[in-house]
Design goal:
It is a single chain. By secondary structure, the chain is of the alpha+beta class. It has one domain. It contains 6 helices and 6 strands; from the N terminus they run αβαββααααβββ. It holds the Pfam family RES.
């Protein structure tokens, strides 16, 4: 659970160099996020469930929640990948800038994946670890997940 993959180029809600953990709040949202609109193709991946007990989470799934934090939906929904490809800073990174400055550890946001529906939401974390107040643990009661990178070889 490093978040390093998102940090390599940045993603919708984390600038380049900032680790982030993107979690679909249900399995179908996670699949939509993983396949990004390719209905009959999905790259190999591992879907996991997580136990999350985090404080300081901003709920941006509603107009009211966004209004309380002065976050514009259009900034969240921007074509962030196109902006990066054009050498521009995505407007959605301003969400990170403003919320991180307020001590926010992460946000609950609508999914912007192709095919996402109104109830498809994601949890995006900038601070997480094994302990409270930002505790995240993978659910693996049978011990099936690899213990380290050597397990993938």
């Amino acid at each position: 659970m490093s978040g390093d993959g998102a940090a390599i180029r940045g993603a919708r809600f984390n600038p380049k160099g900032i680790p982030a953990l993107y979690l679909g709040l249900n399995i179908m949202t996670a699949v939509k996020e993983a396949n990004q609109g390719f209905a009959h193709r999905i790259d190999p991946c591992v879907l996991c469930a997580y136990d999350v007990d985090c404080e300081d989470i901003a709920d941006l799934t509603t107009e009211e929640g966004r209004g309380e934090l002065a976050i514009a939906f259009d900034d969240m929904a921007c074509a962030w990948a196109s902006a990066l490809a054009d050498g521009d800073r995505p407007a959605s990174w301003s969400v990170y800038d403003r919320l991180k400055a307020r001590g926010i550890a992460g946000l609950c946001v609508p999914s912007f994946a192709p095919g996402a529906e109104a109830d498809d939401n994601n949890l995006v974390l900038w601070r997480w670890g094994p302990d409270l107040p930002h505790k995240v643990t993978v659910v693996d009661p049978s011990g099936r997940l690899p213990k380290d990178q050597l397990s993938w070889r």
